[in-house]
Amino acid sequence: MSDTLALVLRLLAVFVVFLVFPLVIGQTEHKVMAHMQGRLGPMYAGGFHGWAQLVADGVKFAQKEDVVPTGADRRIFQLAPAVALLPYLLVMIAIPIGPGNAVGQALDAGVFYVLAVMGVGVLGSLMAGWASANKFSLLGGLRTAAQLLAYELPMLLAAASVAMAAGTLALPGILDAFHWWWVPWQIIGGVVFFTAGLAELQRPPFDMPVADSEIIFGAYTEYTGLRFALFLLAEYAGIVVLSALTAVLFLGGWHGPFGAAGLGWLWTLVKTVALCFVVIWLRVTYPRLREDQLQKLAWTVLIPLALVQIALTGIVKVVIS
After folding, report:
1. Is 315 helix (H, G, I), strand (E, B) or coil?
2. Using one digit for the tens of pLDDT, what is the confidence trace for 109-135?
3. How far apart are CA 221 and CA 218, in angstroms?
4. Can you say whether residue 249 is alpha, beta or left, with left for phi > 0 and alpha for psi between -120 and 50 degrees?
5. DSSP codes of every residue in 26-55
6. How do the domains of the chain map onto residue ranges?
7. What residues form the membrane-spanning segments (predicted)?
8. How many other β-carbons are positioned within 10 Å of the β-carbon of residue 31?
């Protein structure tokens, strides 16, 4: 098999995962929340265990009228959902799921690439808020900008700690250098990275930009139909990407017990799914933070913890060497 054909097949596999996994996580969220909160609809739609809930949601979005406000910047308004969604596809290309060639495209600066491209996805919310000609949408967009500024730094610092420990910025290289004793050593950075990622995705309890009780639905207030569905799909794609990155950087990715090298992809999948469940669990468990609480958590807790993790990594590296 030629290198070009192998690359095309890997990229095609990434695209299939990108289309399927966010929908699976969306359906899983329906089920988990239904069990935890006693919701009846998602458990009975279609009969057996509510299998048709996701189909019903898709039909609902497809039937809704596509409305663009009269005063909106039409081109930016229509482009925003794609800007919110596509960066996660580009990030998935660089995430290794197994040893060897089990990655869409290995990059030498993979850590910085995935963090930079994930930041671009947030711009979709900014564009939507600015272009909607709605004060509630604009306020949601401004909250998104403030949240991005606050949580991008601790996320980057936490990832830098792992790259520093491994001595490389390439994601496959980080996994090649991984040892199991890294898990307790890098646990602070892992918690910071995961928490900051949730805030960038605007997931509860960090959903101030879409606070429905205050600003209707933030930057997405004026969106209907399939354009609104694309924003929801971007959120679930972001959950998959964040969980996969956390598994790769802090939980060893394809490394697992029993020495089953051929099951590397399975260990990555198990860890990713477990973290996706945690994301859903947190949504059900914790109330929304106020804006001041959200900023205080970033600047007074997460950033100092990330700096502590980097200092600890430096000390351990010096002792080992």
Report:
1. helix
2. 889 999 999 888 888 888 988 898 888
3. 6
4. alpha
5. HHHHHHHHHHHHT-SHHHHTTSGGGTTHHH
6. 3-320
7. 6-26, 79-98, 110-132, 153-175, 181-199, 228-252, 264-285, 297-320
8. 17
